Protein 1
Amino acid sequence: MVDKIVATTLNCSYGKVHSIKQLNLTVFQNEILGIIGPANSGKTTFLRTINRLNDMLPGFSATGTLTIDGADIFAMDPEALRRKVGMVFALPLPLPMTVYDNVAYGPRRHGITDKKEIAEIVERALCASSLWEEVKDRLNESAMKLSGGQQQRLCIARTLAVEPDIILYDEPCSGLDPISTAKVEEAMVELKKKYTIVLVTNNVKQASRVSDRTAFFLMGELIEIDQTAKLFVSPKDKRTEDYITGRFG
Amino acid sequence: MKSKKILDTVIEKIIFCCGILAIVFVVLIFGFLLKESFSFFKDYGIINFVTGKLWYPTSAPPRFGILSLMAGSFFVTLGAAAVAIPLGVMAALYIAEVAPVSIRDFLKSGVELLAAIPSVVIGFIGMVTLVPLVRTVFDLPTGLTAFAGSIMLGFMALPTIVSISEDAIRAVPWNYKEGALALGATRWQTMYRIVLPAALPGIIAAVMLGLGRVIGETMAVMMITGNAAQIPAGIFEPVRTMTATIAAEMGETVKGSMHYRSLFSIGVILFMITFCINFIADLFLHRMKR
C-alpha cells in the first residue's frame, strides 16, 4: 500500500480553540478512509486542512507536517493543491449556472479552452458520478432545478472534472434521502479505483458500509484507526465502542 | 375591553392613513404636473416640444424645444455613469471581499458619509477646484463643462452604488465561494466568475438608483455645467440639464404663462425618466431577494 496523505504531529487551532491535537495519520492510495466522531471532534477541520480551505478563516493556524505524495502541502500553492485535492461539501452547492457549466467550471478555470475537450471531460465526469443518464438531456438547464441527490452528484462530477488525485467528502449525504445516499455511496466505491477518498461522516453505518479503514476522532484526538471490519467488530478503545454502539454522540 | 378594541381600530386607521399618504402625494404631484403640462402640450404640441432644438422661452415668438436640454441631461448622466460605475463596483468588491475587517468598517462608513454632503457643497467645491483644473488641463475657454459636471455627479452617485452593491456582494452565500475555491479557482477567478454574476441583479439595481439620483440632481449641475442650452458637440462643452432649467427659470416666469407651463412639462418628462429608472431598479432588487 502506498502512503498518499501523511499527517505527522499535526496541530490545528482557530484562535484559542485547539481543534486537532497531535495527529498522526496516514491515508493509503486508492482506499476510502472513513472518519467518524461526534461534533467538535476535529474531523471536518482535518478535511479542510488537507485542501487548505481553512487558510481563509481568520485566526486559523496549523503546526506539524501534512504531506501528499511526500510533498509538504503548506509549501504548495493553494490553488495547485486544491486542483489535486477535490472536495464535496455537506450541502449540495451547485454554482448558479447550468448543469454543463457547473462541471465545465473547473477545467475552464485551469485553462482548457477546446470545446470538444471540455465536452468530453463533462461527459466523463458525469458518467463517473453516475449522473449522466439522468441529466444528459438537461445539460443546459439551471443546476438549481436538479433534485438534492442529483445536485450532490453534480458536485461530485464537478470535483472529478478537475481530475484530482484525492477526493474529500464532508458529510456528503447528510441532506439526502436514502435512495440518493445509496447512489452517492455507489459512486464513491466505484471511484476509489482511481482516486483516494477521505470520507467524514456523522453516519456511523455509512462508514461501515463504504470505507476500507475507519478512524475515530474525539475532541480533536485520533482515538483509534483500523480496518473497518475490525474496528466495528472489536474496537480496542472503550470510547470507540461506546460511540459506534450509540451510547453517546 | 370595549375601549381597547376601539383604540385598536383607531390606531389601525391612523397607520393606514399614514401608509396611504405616500401614494396620495405621488398621485397629487403627478396630477398637478399633468394638469399644467397638458394645457401646454395642447398649445405648443408635444412633438415640437420634445424634438425642438431651440430653447428661447422669452423670444418672440417663444421657442420651447427641449432636445438640447435632454441631450444635456443625457451627456452628464452618461459621463457620471462612466465615472461612478467602474469606481463604485470595484470599491464595493474591495470592501466586501478583499479588505480586512477593520478597514472595511472604516471605508463603509466613510462612503456613506459621502452621501451626507449637501449637493450645493459638492457643486461649490467642484466650482472652485475642478472647474479651473479642467480649464487649464484641457486648455478650454471655460471649465464649466459637461465633463466637470459628470465627474462631480459621478462622486454623488458613488455612495449609493458602493453601499448597495456591497450589500449585494456580501449576500452571495459564502458556500459559493468555497465551492469555487475548492475547485482550485483563484481568489480573483472566484470573484469574477462566481461572486459578481451572483450579485449582478443587486449591482444593477445599485447602478440604477445611483443614476436616478444623478438625473434628478439640480444644484451641483447648475453650478458647474455652464448652463448653455445647446446640443453639445462633445463632453468638453457647456450643457444645460432639464433640472437646471426648471430651477433657474421658475423664479422669473409669470404664473400660468406658456413659459411657466413649459417648465412643468419638463418636470413631467423628468418624472417619467426617473420613474422608469426606479422601476427597473426595483425589478432587479426584487429579483435579488428571491
Note: Strands of chain A lie at 3-14, 17-28, 32-36, 60-68, 71-72, 85-88, 166-170, 196-200, 213-218, 221-227.
Protein 2
Amino acid sequence: MSEFHLYMAQRLSALVMAPFVIVHIGVMIYAIQGGLSAAEILGRTQGSVFWFAFYGMFVVAVSIHAAIGLRTILGEWAGLRGGMRDWLSAVIGLGLFALGSQAVWAVTA
Amino acid sequence: MKVARAHPLWLAYLLHRLSGLGLALFLPLHFWVLSYALNDAAKLDAFLTLTEMPLVKMAEFGLVFLLAVHLFGGLRLLALEWLPWSAPQKTWAAAAVAGSFLVSTTFLLQAI
Amino acid sequence: MPERDHLTVTVQRGGPDAPMRPQTFEVPAYDNQTVLDVVSWIQQNADPTLTYRFACRVGMCGSCAMMVNGVPRWTCRTHVSKVLDGNAIEVGPLRNLPVIKDLAADMDPFFDKWVSAEGMHHPTRTRDDAIEAIDPVTMERQEANAGIECINCSVCYSACDTVAGNPDYLGPAALQRAWTLYNDAKDANKDAILDAVSGTGGCHSCHSMGSCTTYCPNELDPLSAILGLKRATTKRFFGGRK
C-alpha cells in the first residue's frame, strides 16, 4: 500500500464513519437519560440486524482509520520508520478489529 | 530555541491529533467492557454503575467531547481537501453545520 | 521609538564540529534597523568569525532566512522593532535543516526535494516551434501565478512541524512548485507530477497546520497549493482527468 492509498483509506473510512458518529452521539445522549444498565443496552441491540450492521461497519471503519492514524503518529512523534512501523500499525488494526467484533457480537447476537 | 507556532490552524491540527490519539487509546477498553455482555451481564452492570460516579461522569464528558471535536475537525479537513470551495464559502458551511448541530442536539435533549 | 541605545542579541553559534551554544552581544540600537543589519554589525564590529548568509538585502534572493525569536523570517526585510521581545532578540539558524556553521543552514535537502517533487519543466514544444500563447485569465493560469513568486528562502520548510517529524516529507515549497507546474499550460507531463507527490513524504503527509502560509514572507499560500494537489490526486484516483 502506497502512502497515497493509505491516505484514501483514511479519508474514505472517515467519510463512512461521519454519519455513524453522529448517530452514536445521539444514542449516547438518549441512552444515559435515567442511567445506564446492561438490560437497557441489550434490550435495544440484541437480535437486531440493524444494530449488528451499524456497529459491524463502524468497527471495520474505525479499525482502519485508527491504525492509519496511529501509524502517522508512530512515525512523527515516536520516530518509528519502515517495516517496524507498518507491522505495528497492522497489528493495532487487526487487534482493534478482533476486540471490536467480539464486542459487536456480544451486544447484538 | 523555543519555536513560536500557536496560530489557529496549528492549534486545530494539534486538537485533531490529540483527540484522535485519545479515542484510539480508549477504544480497546470500550470494546473490552462491552464484550462482558456476552457471558456475564451482571459484570457489565457492575461496571455500568461506575458511570454514576462524578469522576467517571467527567471522563465520559471528556470522551464525548473528544469524539465531537474529532468528528467536526475531520469534516473540516475533508471539506478543506476535497471541496473546491473558496475560504469564505467553507467558513459559512462550517458555521451552518455547527449551528444546525447545536439546534438539533438541543431539540433532542428537550424531547427525551 | 522607545528610548534605548542598545539591543541584547543572542546568537546561536556552532555547527557539525561544535554543539550549538548561545552567545550574547550588545548591539547599538537605531531607529531603522533590520535583523540582518544587527547580525552584520556583530560580524563587522564584535566577532568576525560569525558565519551567516545573505546576498541581495531587498527580499529577492531568499538567502538570509533565519530563526528570529522562534519564528523563521527573511532577516533583510524584518525590522527589529517588529520582532523585539522587551529589548532582546534571539537569532538562530533555520530549523529542519543541517547547520553548516552558526547562522548558515545547509539548504541542500530543501533543494533536493524540489527535484524529488518533479519541480522541473516538462516541455510541450521544441525550440523549433513557435512560442505557445498563454491566456492569462484561465483558472489554471491564475492558480499557477499564485505560487510563482516563491524566492526559495525555506521559511515555510523551517516553519513546518510535519517536516520536523517526517524527514521524508517534501515540504511546502517543493509541493507548491509542483502545483504551479501542474497548472502550467506549458507543462507536458502532469501525471509525472502527480506520481511524484503521491509517494512517501508526498502531499498526503501534510496535516494542513498552515504554518507555511502563516509565515511565508511573500504572502504566498503553499497550504492551498498542497490542498490542490490532494484534490487532483484524489480526482485522478476516481478516474477524473484534468
Note: The interface with chain C takes residues 2-4, 6-8, 11, 75-77 of chain A (CB under 8 Å).
Protein 3
Amino acid sequence: MSNRISMIALLTLIAALACTACGSDESEINSGAFEITAALESSPAAVGRNTLMVTLKDSAGAPVEGATLVVDPQMLMHGHGSTEQVVVSEMSAGVYKCTPLTFQMPGMWQVTIDAKKGELTGRKVFSFEVK
Amino acid sequence: MSASAVGVGRLLSWERFAVGFRTAFAAGIGRWDSSAHFARYGDNYAEHAWRSEFWSMVAISERASAYLRLPWALNYKQVGNLGDGAGGGLGDIQAGLRYEAVEIGEFQWFPAIALTLGVSFPSGRATDQAQAHADALGTSVTGRGAWAINAGVSLEKTKIPWFVRVDLGIGVPLPRDTVSGQTLRFGPQLQTALTVGREVLPRVVVSVYGRLQWESAILVAGVAIDNSSRADSGVGAACSWRFDSHWTAQLAIDSSLAFDGLGDNQPAQLTSTIGLRYGYF
C-alpha cells in the first residue's frame, strides 16, 4: 500500500516537473528622463567578462555628458549577482563604457542600468540568455 | 538493511554511535534553463566539484539519534575569458535529530518510519559574498548563505533480502540579507527519493534509486522572481559492504536525468561517491 502511495506521489511530482517550463525572451524596460541604449561590444553575451557600451541621451536627443551610471548584473533566478564590480567610464559625449560585465555562469541574466545627472534619473533593465 | 547514498542514513539498532567520511566528485555536464530545456556546457564553460564531509551520528535514546555533517568543497571552474581556477572551503554545516517512530521489523506488515528534523547553518560562502573576496570565477562558493530548517520522513519496508525505501523531505530556507543589502529568501524545497535494494552477498547491499527535487521561486524584498523555481531529477546506484562488524565501505554513483523537461533552472551533474563508516557498539 505504501509503495502505491509513493508511486502516486512520484508521478504527481513528475507531472509538476513537466509543467514548470516557461521561457523568458530578451526584453528591455526603459524608464525615467533619459533615453538609454546599450549594446554589448561583442555579441552575443558569453560567459566571462563582457563590455557594455551605453549611450545616454536626454528627451531632446542630445547626448548626456557627466552622468553617473550604476550597472548591476543579476542572475535573479539563482538569487545572486556578478562576482565582479562593473566600472563605468565615459568615452565620449554621452557614451559610457561599462566593464567588466562579468557573467560567471551561463543562464538568464538581468542587467539594470541606473543613470543620474543632477535631479534627473533614468533606468534601463534588460535580460538575456548567456551561453 | 540499508545502502544510503544520501544523508547519513541511520544507526543500526545495536550501535551507540557512528562516524563516517565520504568524498564525491561531481562533474558538471550541463544545465536546464528556466524553460526546462537542457543544454550541455560548451567549450567555454566547465564546472566540477570535489565535495567531502565528515559526519557523525549518536544515539540519544533507544529510538532517537542526533547527527552532524561537516561538509567542505573544492570547486573547479573554467569560465570563458576569465580562465580557470579552483577554490573552496567549508560548506553549510547541518545538524539534526532522527526519530525511529516505527523500527524495522517492529510490525510485520508495517514499514519502518523515521522522522528527521534538522537545521542547516550558513557556514559556507554564498555567491554574493564571492565579489568581496575578488573571486571572479566564483570557485569559493560553497553554500547558500541562509539558515534552513529541514524535516523529513523515511519509510522503509524490508523483506529479506529486499528493501524498499521512500524518502520525503522539505527544506525551508530563512530570509537573509545579501551583501548589497537586499532581503533574499530561497523558496521552500521538496525532495523525494524511491530506493530499492537487495542484499546480494552476506553484508553486501546494492540499491538503485530515483530522486526528484523541486524548489519554489526566490523572493527578493518579498517579491517572487519570475522563473526562479528550480527542479532536478536523477537516478543512482549505491553499494555498501560491511567488511567488519564495525566498518562499512560505501560506493555510489548519481546522475541527473539530463533531458529536456526533467529539470528546471538547475545544473546537471554526474557524481561518484566513496565513503567509509565506523559504527561503535
Note: Chain A has one domain: 26-130.
